Amino acid sequence: MPTAENKSGPILDVRDFSVSFNVYGKFSHVLDGIAFRVQRGERVGLVGESGCGKTTTLKAILRVLPGNAIVKGGEVLFDGQDVSGMSDAALSAMRRTGAGMIFQDPSSALNPVFSIESQFLTVLKYAAPGGASGKQLYAVATEALSSVMLPDPDRIMKSFPYQLSGGMKQRVCIAIAIAAGCRLLLADEPGTSLDVTIQDQILRLINRLVIDRGLSVLMVSHSLGVIRQSTSRVNIMYAGTVVESGATDDVFSDPKHPYTAALMECVPKLTGGSVARGIPGRVPDYTQPPKGCRFAPRCPWARDICNGQKPPHLEVSPGHHVSCHLVSEGIQ
Length: 332
Fold this sequence. Notes:
β7 (184-188), α8 and β8 form a beta-alpha-beta unit. The longest helix has 18 residues, at 196-213. This protein has a single domain, classed as 3-Layer(aba) Sandwich (Rossmann fold). It is globular, with a radius of gyration of 21 Å. The chain has 13 helices and twelve strands. The protein is α/β, with parallel strands linked by helices. The protein has an eight-stranded mixed β-sheet with strand order 6-7-8-3-9-10-12-11, sandwiched between helices.
């Protein structure tokens, strides 16, 4: 049986976690010692380029990595319990009512051949096996749909996914997660497939649920604007490593890592004046990652030590941490 909820510590604590994949006899070393926390009722961002390991991190939290994944070290603690060491019963309970996930494409999260009612009630029955009656579960579902600002929940319940817009389907996914009683919401770029006005509505909805229901949120995105608007703390991720973390305002106003600064330079300025620049180079080959700092091959400030030795993780100000040799030597 799962242990009682530990209300004193962080709801999620990822400690020095590393994952590799066996790909046709070669090992792809994707996650390399990542570490971050999500406190209760906190909104935390995980931001970086495509292919840097953000979605792999979410899958590791839920322990749904593919069969060729190999955990090389570290821990993922949910409510103080190591996810990799959970029994089947504890893991099932965690997935039912502990952590819920909303996906980048809501169409892929809903089965097109079943009605919303059928899918919603199936999830609720799984979350509370042997509990409420069908009528009670239906009432819970319609209340959840109303709470995510969907009009006429009875009509939504009778609809099939193809009859709903992208924004409506994403709200249905959020409603399913909160109705099941999840305490940690894993949001994998929840607005990327939606137009900007609907994306803003979805982000505002998630922020309101944090306040009203005390949800904790880990939001993955490659959009700096979304992260700045929707999180209180942020982790900057590059090539399977967390290179900088801290309060969102601190990191965005005073980036210390060269990669973070380069990301900021990529954002177009509304005031004009210059053309946003990209970052030269590309994410390294994970089968042969750099021995030192993984950003070194693309870093204009890289030195010999950067290529041969992993940088220390330093606190440059209260709660603001950076992994960079330049910072440790007072150069950056």
